[in-house]
Specification:
The protein has 92 residues and is of the alpha+beta class. Helices cover 60% and strands 15% of the residues.
């Protein structure tokens, strides 16, 4: 996981909206574009950033591409962020 790419992807409000929609489960790109109010071209740009960061993955079924959250990368990012806080027991 490249933490810089993950944080960059999460910094954009539109991409966070896409991730929120993907929390509901696997969805094809056309339905995803409609549900978040983006043109297919605009959504494609954001999906590319999310794929590059590893936050989502795609599967192809017949003529459709479906997107899902990659929870492993989210978990890794949360672990990394939590290390910034440190362990309160270390301060004693």
């Amino acid at each position: 996981m490249a933490i810089n790419e993950v944080l960059s992807a999460l910094a954009d409000e539109t991409r966070r909206t896409v991730l929120q929609k993907l929390r509901e489960g696997k969805i094809n790109s056309g339905d995803l574009a409609k549900s978040v109010g983006l043109s297919p071209q605009a959504l494609s740009y954001h999906l590319a950033k999310l794929r590059k960061s590893g936050l989502i993955y795609e599967t192809k079924e017949k003529n459709f591409i479906y997107y899902e959250l990659n929870l492993t990368v989210l978990d890794e990012a949360l672990v990394w962020i939590s290390t910034l806080k440190g362990d309160k027991n270390d301060e004693k």
